[in-house]
Amino acid sequence: MFYNFIFPYFNFVSGMNLLRYVTFRTMCALLTSLIISFLLYPTFIRHFKYSQPIRDDGPASHILQKQGTPTMGGAVIIAGTIVSSLLWGDVYNGYLLLLLALTFAYSMLGFCDDFKKIRYKNSKGISGKQKLFFQIIFALIFSYAVETLRAPNIVGCLTFPFFKNFVINNTPFLLAFTTLVIVGSSNAVNLTDGLDGLATFPSMLAVLCFGIISYIVGHIVFANYLQIAYIPTVGELSVFCGALIGACLGFLWYNAPPAKIFMGDTGSLAIGGALGGLSVIVKHEFVLAIIGGLFVIEACSVMIQVAYFRMTGKRIFLMAPIHHHFEKKGWAESTVVIRFWIISFVFALIGLATLKIR
Question: Is 312 exposed, middle or buried (0-12, 13-18, 19+ CB in 10 A)?
Answer without folding.
Answer: exposed
